[in-house]
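Continued from yesterday's entry.
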Amino acid sequence: MIVYYAIGGGLGHLTRARRMLETLRIDATIVTASPYAHLTGAYPVLEVPADLEHHVDAHRAWIHALGAERLIADTFPGGIQGELCGLEMPMDYVARLLRWDEYRRAVPHDLPSFDTTWILEELEPEHDAFVRSNSNQVAKWTACVPQAGPAAPSPPYWLIVHSGPEHEVLELVSYTRELLALTEKPDRILVATRCDVALPEGFEHVDAYPAAHLFASATRIISAAGFNVMLETEAFREKHDVLPFARRFDDQYRRAARRRASLA
């Protein structure tokens, strides 16, 4: 069994897991603690027991007991709390932008080495140096973002896309209302989210995951600055408004700044 270890609690880790496995054509079981585990498509899922949180040794023993022939670690090279450190098994690594200093404060253990690391975006210098000194092979990986999906609504419409949490979806709605005061109002304002959130008048919930097929027809896109949405909107950067949110380990502010610099 090959394990894709997507331990983060949000939807982004699972979206990236599916994209990586589809691109690399690897059959794997996705290990996750995300409440969105049912969105992994055809890939089998194994959910991490909740009682392993804050119990690093027990967490490590649980992973070891899986008997995996290979583990692909998503984002966190030593796991979310150091549970991958000290494991004796072949490992690969999927590296995206990480607040490296913050992560190393949380996981100060000796980190694993990897057979192959795929770099998905520019890393912090210290993170990049770790990858290159602890990987037998380093490859830059460019995702193919599928645009196919159900027929998109007729334009003009604006699109808010964010999986959650609820208060962040509402913050994006509030930001959009400020934008509306500065320009001509579109026929529809769609909110693509997995949250069951009450929307104000004039905003319409759309259940679309993934939402990439809605981007081309939208006249404006409003989102946070998570890895997946920034990747999926790369071709639509001129009409994309980005509102980054604070994360413990992800650096949405740096990702948003890079997008702004690319438009200058």
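--- second protein ---
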Amino acid sequence: MLIKEFIGRFEVSSSGRIVNITSGQSLSQMNAEIAYAMTKGAIETLTKTIYSELAMEGVTINAVNPGPNDTGWMDDELKQKLIDRFPMGRVGLPSDTANLVTFLCSEEGGWITGQVIHSEGGFIR
């Protein structure tokens, strides 16, 4: 509904960006989080389905999967369990996701649309 409202108010003469946040490949591992996993799967499907219609309006749409990202909810025990699964030796940070979203919203990111980008620091499942 938000995307529909955005497009309804959007001036075609300019360029617009929509960036959704998803959970990517981890969806199959979320047995206890069925509703959450379904909504994230829907975000990916929406992104891949409507990009061509939005492109005609001058709008790009992409989704970013930040992977396990410490936004303040991870305790030290969980971080230690996950750290070996990150080849870069650390868990993701909000700034990692923000940097990618900033790029996708920039002029330089204007040719990228309809993609789900997995920005997980090489997270090993």
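Residues 10-118 form a domain with the Rossmann fold fold (CATH 3.40.50.720). The chain has one domain: 10-118. Will compare against the first tomorrow.
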